Input
Amino acid sequence: MGYTEFEHEVRGASEIDIVYSALDETMTNAVQQNWKYAVDNNLNFRDACLVNSIMKIYNHYKESGISM
Output
């Protein structure tokens, strides 16, 4: 292990590493939720993503007291 490799190990995660890690977790959770929605509602994945996102927006407006 060279000096620069050791130095990287000591410093730990950079800001971009943390951002990518959080993005990976967010995207993984979104795919899992949409896949489950597709299976539970007998939809293809594309339609499940669309319907699920519209329902999330609708529920947010409903909980906020905004009528559509």
Remarks:
- Residues 15-64 form one domain.
- The radius of gyration is 20 Å.
- The chain has one domain: 15-64.
- DSSP finds three helices and no strands in the chain.
